[in-house]
Write a structure and sequence with these properties.
The protein is α+β, with helices and mostly antiparallel strands. The protein has one helix and eleven strands; from the N terminus they run αβββββββββββ. The chain has a domain at 153-268: Immunoglobulins (Immunoglobulin-like), CATH 2.60.40.
């Protein structure tokens, strides 16, 4: 009997020892977060009752026909640790949508002209022009100046002179003419020299010295008109070949009866 009860006590002691070890290991595991803590041993946290929030009264305008409102976020009640206060929440409100409003256009961009740099070739180095010597003016070779040969015949002064018509007294003022004489180098009458009388009006007539002896042995006479008029004529001596033998002599009539006859005498100055 004694041995049987002692063995039973030893067995009970061994069981409790094993349970104690298990409890120690479990507690150590729960302390080091190796073994999860059973729900029965977790500390209970006091939960506050939900706070009632009352939405603020908002005036909802009567909606006007507008486009379908876009979906907005649904407000959720969020508890706050502060003393219970009426916290406004996001309440979907229908906002007035303006009808037929002119949508302002975005500001037009003012075009600013910017000069786009163009790729220009770098300037090429230009040669500095070398100073060229200015050519010195060279004198043209002088040629002997040949003196202008004097005409073969010159006008004897006081020619030309104007007088009244004495060669044809019967014509009176119905006459206008030019006449005179031609002399050689020895002051002797020289017939056979051609005399030409022209004008800008188209008059052109010739005669020869000695054809009108009323003026002298080498006299000549050309009637230029049958009335007096203020016209200018050109008188010139020429050779039979048409070569000029004198300068051109201008004779201007005033258009009066007292001066309707011009007298011109020529004298030879050199051979021709």
């Amino acid at each position: 009997m004694g041995r049987g009860s002692a063995g039973c006590l030893n067995l009970i002691t061994l069981v409790f020892l094993i349970l104690t070890l298990v409890v120690i290991l479990a507690v150590g595991g729960m302390l080091f977060n190796v073994v999860p803590v059973p729900l029965a041993f977790r500390p209970m946290t006091a939960t506050l009752p939900p706070t009632a929030f009352f939405p603020t009264e908002t005036r909802t305008p009567i909606p006007s026909p507008t486009d379908t409102p876009t979906r907005t976020n649904t407000p959720t009640r969020t508890p706050t640790p502060r003393p219970p206060t009426a916290t406004p929440t996001q309440t979907p409100t229908i906002t007035d949508t303006p009808t037929n409003t002119t949508t302002p256009l975005p500001p037009t961009a003012t075009a600013t002209l910017t000069q786009t740099p163009t790729n220009t070739k770098p300037p090429t180095a230009t040669r500095t022009p070398t100073r060229t010597r200015v050519p010195t003016r060279t004198k043209a070779p002088t040629q002997p100046i040949t003196p202008t040969q004097a005409p073969a015949f010159t006008v004897l002064p006081p020619s030309p002179s104007l007088t009244s018509n004495f060669v044809n007294p019967g014509a009176g003022c119905n006459f206008m003419g030019i006449g005179g004489q031609v002399y050689d180098m020895n002051n002797q009458p020289l017939p056979g020299i051609q005399i030409s009388v022209t004008s800008d009006t188209g008059f052109n007539q010739t005669t020869i010295s000695g054809s009108n002896t009323t003026m002298g042995q080498s006299g000549w006479l050309i009637q230029v008109d049958t009335k007096v008029s203020p016209i200018t004529y050109i008188v010139e001596l020429k050779s039979p070949q048409g070569v000029s033998l004198s300068n051109k002599v201008r004779v201007s009539f005033p258009g009066t009866c007292e001066q309707n006859l011009a007298l011109i005498n020529f004298k030879q100055g050199r051979p021709f």
